[in-house]
């Protein structure tokens, strides 16, 4: 029986892109050296969970991942979408959160699961976390209750727009920022939050539909696909003494900037209000700016302190609320890739996608 209780195993496509999970010792250090097929062969137990195929559009260190590569991964999934029940993207950890967010915007509302995973140690290492991460990712991708884009790593399932790499070496590398985990995975058991029940490999899933039947992915609404991004989006982090003139220096190379403010939304005032002038000049010059906080948890609220209130009501100064910086980068690249109309950019930016924001006014 399949993980969702059916007689036929789900058909899962592994999209291999490289990363530590595929790395081997090279002359200059670890670098991707295994193919996706070789990585998959390390986990023969996956054949008990799903029928697995492998495709390899990339084989790179994720430090080298670019928005063009996000589009390639998305198009690979889109091209195979009708032929598979779910997808597992093998990816390096360093930029995995960015790619998960980008796929959330490029393939919106997917009824089929798109799972990203990788490892902190190479698949061939005797102390690797790669085998369990890959197995659990296939398990999750083959489950009837799974959908949309997520990261499965270290026994946690993290919504694709809410992940942040918090640790460089530990196996629990990622945190879910400002949003609960939809599930955890204990060995071969998926334990879901929010009263959704527990999905267990080889046992029918309860509460999938009102009559107890598992939903058929083919009967659900297909995802909305996008194939354009604007790469001219940058991130600027406030530090004490930073000259606001830096914004004017960015004008020729960036269409949008994400400004990481202090605390809940503090921006230096100074005696000459130079930051306020610089931000307003940036917006009035036709550029886009989104304000967020450099603090990891709990988000932005510009209305609390005097040092943020000047920006709270300006319609063209976008507020990141509780979004991650990774999601803000990907969302602005997506939004500006679709339109340059300011009102339309605002509409796209504030539209929730894959749980990427919980506005404070809600």
Automatic annotation (TrEMBL):
<feature type="binding site">
    <location>
        <begin position="93"/>
        <end position="94"/>
    </location>
    <ligand>
        <name>substrate</name>
    </ligand>
</feature>
<dbReference type="InterPro" id="IPR020827">
    <property type="entry name" value="Asparaginase/glutaminase_AS1"/>
</dbReference>
<dbReference type="InterPro" id="IPR027473">
    <property type="entry name" value="L-asparaginase_C"/>
</dbReference>
<dbReference type="Pfam" id="PF00710">
    <property type="entry name" value="Asparaginase"/>
</dbReference>
<dbReference type="InterPro" id="IPR027475">
    <property type="entry name" value="Asparaginase/glutaminase_AS2"/>
</dbReference>
<dbReference type="InterPro" id="IPR041725">
    <property type="entry name" value="L-asparaginase_I"/>
</dbReference>
<keyword id="KW-0378">Hydrolase</keyword>
<dbReference type="GO" id="GO:0004067">
    <property type="term" value="F:asparaginase activity"/>
</dbReference>
<feature type="active site" description="O-isoaspartyl threonine intermediate">
    <location>
        <position position="20"/>
    </location>
</feature>
<feature type="domain" description="Asparaginase/glutaminase C-terminal">
    <location>
        <begin position="232"/>
        <end position="349"/>
    </location>
</feature>
<dbReference type="InterPro" id="IPR037152">
    <property type="entry name" value="L-asparaginase_N_sf"/>
</dbReference>
<feature type="active site">
    <location>
        <position position="20"/>
    </location>
</feature>
<dbReference type="GO" id="GO:0006520">
    <property type="term" value="P:amino acid metabolic process"/>
</dbReference>
<dbReference type="InterPro" id="IPR006034">
    <property type="entry name" value="Asparaginase/glutaminase-like"/>
</dbReference>
<protein>
    <recommendedName>
        <fullName>asparaginase</fullName>
        <ecNumber>3.5.1.1</ecNumber>
    </recommendedName>
</protein>
<feature type="binding site">
    <location>
        <position position="62"/>
    </location>
    <ligand>
        <name>substrate</name>
    </ligand>
</feature>
<dbReference type="InterPro" id="IPR027474">
    <property type="entry name" value="L-asparaginase_N"/>
</dbReference>
<comment type="similarity">
    <text>Belongs to the asparaginase 1 family.</text>
</comment>
<dbReference type="InterPro" id="IPR040919">
    <property type="entry name" value="Asparaginase_C"/>
</dbReference>
<dbReference type="Pfam" id="PF17763">
    <property type="entry name" value="Asparaginase_C"/>
</dbReference>
<feature type="active site">
    <location>
        <position position="93"/>
    </location>
</feature>
<feature type="domain" description="L-asparaginase N-terminal">
    <location>
        <begin position="11"/>
        <end position="189"/>
    </location>
</feature>
<dbReference type="InterPro" id="IPR036152">
    <property type="entry name" value="Asp/glu_Ase-like_sf"/>
</dbReference>
